[in-house]
Amino acid sequence: MKENSAKYFSNRSCQYFPCHKAVNAEDFNCLFCYCPLYALGDRCGGNYSYTDKGIKDCTNCGIPHGGDGYEHVMAHIRDVIQTARRPD
Predict the structure, then answer these.
(1) Which of 24, 35, 76, 87 has the fewest CB atoms in 10 Å of its CB?
(2) How many domains does the chain have?
(3) What percent of the chain is predicted at pLDDT more than 90?
(4) Domain range enclosing 69
(5) Rounded CA separation 69/35 (Å)
(6) Residue 63 to residues 44, 52, 87, 88: CA-CA distances in angstroms?
(7) For the segment 12-30, what is each residue's pLDDT rounded down to a tens digit?
């Protein structure tokens, strides 16, 4: 098991732990409980799908919660910031 840090946090007392079954519970990173890349839509790089109603479904994605999740999110965070910028 990893130690909690700025890059890794595990909340085993959460009622939903682990919320994504694709990631080993021993290594599950809860740091990005709500994925900051969700707003990128099809540019997030994760294993997502869309429901019949057009809602992005990340149930099968374990990227933010896996071993390299922090690095993956940080590699795309500028895209999130750019998406949220006010138009000139």
Answers:
(1) 87
(2) 1
(3) 70
(4) 1-88
(5) 10
(6) 10, 23, 30, 33
(7) 999 999 888 878 888 899 9
